[in-house]
Known about the structure:
Elements: H1 2-8, H2 14-25, H3 31-41, H4 48-72, E1 76-77, E2 80-81, H5 83-87, H6 89-109, H7 113-136, H8 144-169, H9 174-201, H10 204-207, H11 213-216, H12 222-230, H13 233-245, H14 250-263, H15 265-282, H16 291-305
Antiparallel strand pairs: 1-2
Amino acid sequence: xxxxxxxxxxxxxxxxxxxxxxxxxxxxxxxxxxxxxxxxxxxxxxxxxxxxxxxxxxxxxxxxxxxxxxxxxxxxxxxxxxxxxxxxxxxxxxxxxxxxxxxxxxxxxxxxxxxxxxxxxxxxxxxxxxxxxxxxxxxxxxxxxxxxxxxxxxxxxxxxxxxxxxxxxxxxxxxxxxxxxxxxxxxxxxxxxxxxxxxxxxxxxxxxxxxxxxxxxxxxxxxxxxxxxxxxxxxxxxxxxxxxxxxxxxxxxxxxxxxxxxxxxxxxxxxxxxxxxxxxxxxxxxxxxxxxxxxxxxxxxxxxxxxx
Length: 308
């Protein structure tokens, strides 16, 4: 899969090739292609198409990150300068477009139109999720349900597409395909909720990007949504003023982190992520015990315990 990913991140245009190799060299956890490969392997399917489609979903993921960093004016990604910080927004927008088109060109080459339809639908919903989130920026009254809807669209749907594609390739039954879709969806939800927590509890050196970036960008994620529910009127007004006045200095940051610890809202979010992980593993019970199932069973536990 890595060889396919590098090959399709390359170009005979020097600038595109340089950026493509830079993105590939940034690494990443490769969870999405791993989910696709393992889901296909559940029924013993291990053909080269799995690696090509694994590269497709990783390129789709990279394209969304590249565009997200422009929207968020992010300067760091995975411990190094973001593409927009190094090459500028204009080039980065086009590079994100190139990654999207290259990924869909590779997928189209497989002539598996059901998978192509699935990828197109998921990518559209991911963009819609980004638009919904942008419309909610600097809104201190966003609800838990609204945030979970955004998380489902922006993150979890691509996870579910990976596992569903693996099931389609492996010719599983309709019931098993639905189990794999739901497994991926719940793993993706767990992944995003842990991300929400790490933004407050991790360090920049561990996370590979600045901490507390969501609040700086005017986004209320679940730890703060719960704090708005549980905190005093003074606590809620502090959050509102930070959002309203874009005032997130060191003193306010320390106060917010103290409040998250005091009310235990990060732990509450991790408990919710753990529940998603537990539910995800239940959807693997319809598959025979094998190495691939054992690996898929281990992934949700890794996700809720990760530190980056």
